[in-house]
Fold this sequence. Notes:
With 429 residues, the chain is an alpha/beta fold. 33% of the residues lie in helices and 16% in strands. The chain has helices at 24-34, 43-56, 67-82, 109-113, 132-141, 160-169, 225-235, 258-268, 271-288, 340-349, 384-388, 395-402, 414-427, and strands at 60-64, 96-100, 117-121, 147-151, 173-177, 185-187, 192-194, 201-205, 218-222, 294-296, 303-304, 311-314, 321-324, 329-332, 355-356, 372-374, 377-378, 403-405. Pyridoxal-5'-phosphate binds at residues 66-68, 103-104, 106-107, 151, 177, 179-180, 205, 207, 218.
Amino acid sequence: xxxxxxxxxxxxxxxxxxxxxxxxxxxxxxxxxxxxxxxxxxxxxxxxxxxxxxxxxxxxxxxxxxxxxxxxxxxxxxxxxxxxxxxxxxxxxxxxxxxxxxxxxxxxxxxxxxxxxxxxxxxxxxxxxxxxxxxxxxxxxxxxxxxxxxxxxxxxxxxxxxxxxxxxxxxxxxxxxxxxxxxxxxxxxxxxxxxxxxxxxxxxxxxxxxxxxxxxxxxxxxxxxxxxxxxxxxxxxxxxxxxxxxxxxxxxxxxxxxxxxxxxxxxxxxxxxxxxxxxxxxxxxxxxxxxxxxxxxxxxxxxxxxxxxxxxxxxxxxxxxxxxxxxxxxxxxxxxxxxxxxxxxxxxxxxxxxxxxxxxxxxxxxxxxxxxxxxxxxxxxxxxxxxxxxxxxxxxxxxxxxxxxxxxxxxxxxxxxxxxxxxxxxxxx
Length: 429
Ligand SMILES: *Cc1c(COP(=O)(O)O)cnc(C)c1O
C-alpha cells in the first residue's frame, strides 16, 4: 500500500458506475402501479421501444429482460438464416462464430446457448475492440464462417469501416453487441451513425451499471419488422394468435416488465447529460494523469465514445512485476513503477471502486479450448512468457495485464476525482 496517511477514505463509496436516477423514473413506475400495468405489457414498454429506436436511429426495438436475452435471440435469428430447420438450442450447431475476445462473457455465452463454437478474435490497440486484421486472418483460417459477434468496449466504437468491409467481403452476418455503447457515434467513410445501427441483429443492455439503466433489461434493435415481431413472440413464450395458449415453436420468458421499462424510460430522458458527465470524467483523468507513464482507453478520430468507463493503461516500462493466477495475484512494489493490482488496492483503500479490464475470453477456463486468432494467425501457441518480454502478439492479454477501469460514476464530484488522481500518482512514487 502506498503512503496515504493524509488521505481520508470517502465517507460514501465512489462507485465504478452506479445507476443515476432523476425523478421521471419514479413517475413512470408510479403511473404503472396506479394503473395496474405492472406486468410485461404497458405504456412504458411501448414508449421505451419507440424512444430508444428513435434515439439510436433504427426502426424497431423489442424490450427484453436483459442484454443477454437480446443477444440470445440475435443468435437464434442468425442461426435460423444460416441453418434453417435446426432445433432450438442447436441453431448454430457445427458452426464457428467469430467473437470479440476482450469483453464481458455475456457477449459470447449466447453462441454456446445455440451450440455454436466461439472463435475469439484478438483486440487491437487503437480502440481495444476486435482487430480487423485478426478478423481477416480468422476468415483465412475458417473460411466457412458466416457469423461475427462484435462488442464496442467501454463505450468506444469499433473500427466499423474495416469490420463492415470484411463482413461484406465474406458474406457474414454481423451481430452487434452495443450493450456498453448506447449513445456512442461513429462517423466512418463506409458506415456511420450511432452504435446499435451497424449490425444485422443488435442488442443493447439496461443493466444497473450501464449508461442507461432500467435496473435490469435490454433491447433487440432492428430495421426489420418481421425479425422484431419474431423476437417479441419468442420472448413471450411464442404464443400464437389464438383464443387459448397455443404454441407452435419453443418460446422464452424474456420480455421486459412495464416497471423496469418505466425506470429505463425515465432514465433515457437523461442520456445526453450522462454522456456529458462521463466525458468530463474522462477529460479530468486525462488532464490529471498527463505527465505519468500511462494512457487512457483510446478511440479513433472518427468516433465519439459515450465514455461509459475511463480505463487506464500503464506503460510497459513503468510496470512493476505483477503475476496473476486464476483467482489470486502477487506484485512487487518498485519505486517509480506500479501495476493495475497495486492501483486497484489503493483505490479500494479510499472507499472507491475500480476494476480490472475484462479478462479476455480466450484466457477464461470456460473457453480455453476454443480457438483464438491474433493478427498473426492462430494464437493458441502463445504463452505469458512472451508477454513479459514485450513480444506478444496477444494484445488482449497485454491490455488485461497493464490496464484497469477507473471509478467513472457520474455522481463522483471533481474533488473526489482529484483524490483518486492523487492516489494513482502516489502509486508511481
Ligand atoms: C452488460 C453487457 C452485456 C449483457 O447485458 P445484461 O443486460 O447484463 O444481460 C453484454 N455484453 C456486454 C459487452 C456487456 O457489457
